[in-house]
Design goal:
mainly alpha, MetI-like fold, 14 helices, 1% strand, flat, transmembrane, transmembrane helix, MetI-like, MetI-like_sf
Length: 297
């Protein structure tokens, strides 16, 4: 009787969350899946068209470029940014001189909305009145050769990539929290055995943080698959297709082409890309965990 009563309370507490989940996530996902197989615009009702929308997007060169750009950004975000966050965490954990100021300055950009960050960089790097013009003036360089970093297809992709560097601080916060949870007696025992600071990090800290590193890689990858605001504010996916990714392609398909069926087909591909990346990353770090277990045995 007590068990049934306990299960009833669990059900009552979980039910509101399940209902909210269905309303916010499940229903929209099912709707996207259904309408991706339909001819659907803002003025017409969905009419089943089979795989037509998927044939259209995979036959579009811009769509393939958007997938390529998305995957490159995922690779950069899940490696360079995570490594930068880990490096900063290792440095800040030692509390060097001025570490509180560095920590605060490093974390501040994370409280600024990403769209606002995009606007800020657009103004800073504007060739007419931005910081580049001031630097060219200070060094006496030719003002006519100031590059438009967001407007030049050679620089736009990497300039947009650099605007995300400050958000590696999110990973730093997670890493610092995990480092604080490591038993200090392990470090003390290693110091007694003559271990140097870099050896403590190499043989104790990093192996014990493999799971949280995997978590950060997953979060970074998922964030990049759905990245929209900074790209739209700075380049709108241009110039040409230099910074076009899946969310921008989806947005343009829905708003400019008024083709919601095709846009939802892009959304389905975006969901699948995210799921595949999560499964691959989790599998990769699970293999690492199994290796550690074997070595311990």
């Amino acid at each position: 009787m007590m068990v049934k009563k306990k299960n009833l309370w669990i059900t009552l507490f979980v039910m509101p969350c399940m209902v909210l989940f269905c309303i916010v996530y499940a229903v929209p996902i099912v709707t996207v899946l259904f309408t991706s197989f339909c001819d659907y615009t803002i003025t017409t009702k969905p009419a089943f068209s089979g795989l037509k929308n998927f044939q259209l997007i995979f036959g579009d060169k811009d769509f393939l470029i958007s997938i390529k750009n998305t995957l490159v950004w995922v690779a950069l975000q899940s490696t360079f940014h995570v490594m930068l966050g880990l490096l900063m965490a290792l440095v800040l954990r030692r509390k060097p001189k001025g570490w509180k100021f560095v920590r605060t300055a490093y974390m501040i950009p994370n409280i600024i909305p990403t769209a606002a960050t995009g606007v800020m960089f657009t103004l800073l790097l504007n060739p007419s009145f931005g910081i580049l013009k001031s630097m060219y003036g200070v060094f006496g360089l030719d003002m006519s050769k100031i590059p438009n970093l967001f407007g030049n297809s050679k620089f736009a992709f990497w300039t947009v990539t650099c605007t995300w560097i400050f958000y590696s601080a999110f990973n730093t916060i997670i890493f610092l929290a995990e480092m604080g949870a490591i038993d200090t007696s392990i470090y003390e025992a290693a110091r007694v055995d003559g271990a140097k600071p870099w050896q403590l990090d190499r043989y104790i800290t990093l192996p014990l943080m493999k799971n949280v590193v995997g978590t950060c890689v997953v979060l970074a990858s998922v964030a990049m698959v759905s990245q929209f605001d900074i790209i739209y504010v700075t380049t709108k996916g241009g110039p040409g297709t230099a910074t076009l990714n899946l969310p921008i392609y989806l947005y343009k398909t829905a708003t400019l082409e008024n083709n919601y069926g095709k846009a939802n087909a892009v959304g389905v591909v975006q969901i699948l890309v995210g799921l595949v990346l999560v499964v691959l990353i989790q599998g990769l770090f699970a293999m690492g965990k199994e290796k550690i277990k074997k070595e311990v045995k």
